[in-house]
Amino acid sequence: MPPYSGHGGPYQPGPYGGGNYSGSFENHFNGTGPYQQGPWPQQPPVMMGVPQAEPGYIIGQSFKAFGDAAAEWIVGVLAHLGILTAVYFAVNFAVMVVSFNVAIVMGSISSTAASEPLSFAGVVALLLTFVAIFGCVFACMLWMQANFCYAANKALDGEKLTFGDFFQFKSVAGLMKVFLCVGFMVTVGSLLIIPGIVAIVLFWAAPVIKAKEPSLTVGQCLSLSQQMVRQNFGTALGTVVLLGLIQFAFSLFLFLGLIPAFPITALGFAFAARAISQQQCRLWP
Predict the structure, then answer these.
(1) What's residue 174's pLDDT?
(2) Least confident among 8-12, 188-192, 280-284
(3) Residue 280 pairs with which residues in a beta bridge?
(4) How many CB atoms lie within 10 A of CB 59?
(5) DSSP of the chain, one letter per residue?
C-alpha cells in the first residue's frame, strides 16, 4: 500500500511498501487475521513496516505530528500542568491545616514550641502531608500520561484532536493501570539501576498497546510489549534512547521545555509501537 501523502493529498509512491498487516497488536504477534480497515473520511494512512522505520524517522514523524496539532497539544499540556500545580497547593494547604489542628488538640504546640524539638505529632503531621501530596500529584500525573497516550493514539489513527481528548476519564482508566504497573517496575528496578533500564526498554510499549487495544489486560499488554521489543530490538532501543535525550534537552529549558516534551514523547512511543508491529498509521510529509 503506498503511503499517505498528507492532508487530503493524492497517494505517492514511497519507501514503505504494502503487505498483509494485522489490525491489532495481539493478532500481529499471534499471527492471526488480516487487518480490517475502518471507516476513514478520506484516504487511509500508510502501513509503517519493519525494518524501514528507523528511530530517526519515527522521531521526525513525532515532531511533525506535534506541529500539525500544536495548539491542541499546548493547551492540553498547560491545562494538565495547571491542574497539577493547583492540586499540589490545595492538598498541601488542606493537610497542613488539619495537621496543625490535630497538633493543637494533642498539646504539641505551646508557647515554647519554637525552642522545643519536633514532637511525635509533628512528625506524623509531616508524614501525612508528604503522603497526601505525593499520592494526589502522582494520581494526577498518571491521569495526564494516560490522556497524552490516548491523544497520541487518536492522532495516529488519522483523527482530528480536540481539547476534550486530553481530559478523558473512563476511556483512560485501563491506561492508568498500565502506567502504574510499568512505573512501579521501573521505580523498583531503578534501585539496582540495570533492572530499571531493562524494564524501560521492555515495557515502554505497554501503554500504547492498551490505548490501541482497550480490551487487553495489563498482563497481556506487558507480554506483547516485550515481544514487540524482541522482534525489533534495535528500533525499540534506539527510540527509547533518542526520546530520553530529547527529554533531557527539553528539560534544560525548565517549564517551557515540558510543553513539547510530553507530546513528542507520547507520539514517539506510539509511532514506534505501530512501526514495529506493522500497524496502520498516519504519516506526515
Answers:
(1) 92
(2) 8-12
(3) 47
(4) 21
(5) -PPP-SSSPPP---S-------SSHHHHHHT---------SSSPPEEP-TTT--HHHHHHHHHHHHHHTHHHHHHHHHHHHHHHHHHHHHHHHHHHHHHHHHHHHTT---TTGGGSPPPHHHHHHHHHHHHHHHHHHHHHHHHHHHHHHHHHHHHHTTPPP-GGGGS-SGGGHHHHHHHHHHHHHHHHHHTTSHHHHHHHHHHTTHHHHHHH-TTS-HHHHHHHHHHHHHHTHHHHHHHHHHHHHHHHHHHTTTHHHHHHHHHHHHHHHHHHHHHHTT-EE----
CA distance 36 to 237: 30
pLDDT score, position 280: 81
> Do 49 and 17 touch, CB atoms closer than 8 A?
yes
Please give the angle made by the CA atoms of 270, 235 and 239, to the nearest 5 degrees. Answer: 55
DSSP string covering 226-258: HHHHHHTHHHHHHHHHHHHHHHHHHHTTTHHHH
Please, what is the average pLDDT of the chain? Answer: 79
- C-beta of residue 264 within 8 angstroms of C-beta of residue 199: no
CB-facing half-sphere around the CA of 230: CA atoms within 13 A: 8
What are the residue boundaries of the structural domains of the chain, listed by start?
55-281
Q: How many CB atoms lie within 10 A of CB 48?
A: 26
- Tens of pLDDT along 119-166? 666 677 778 778 888 888 899 999 999 999 999 999 999 899 999 999
Of 19 and 178, more confident: 178
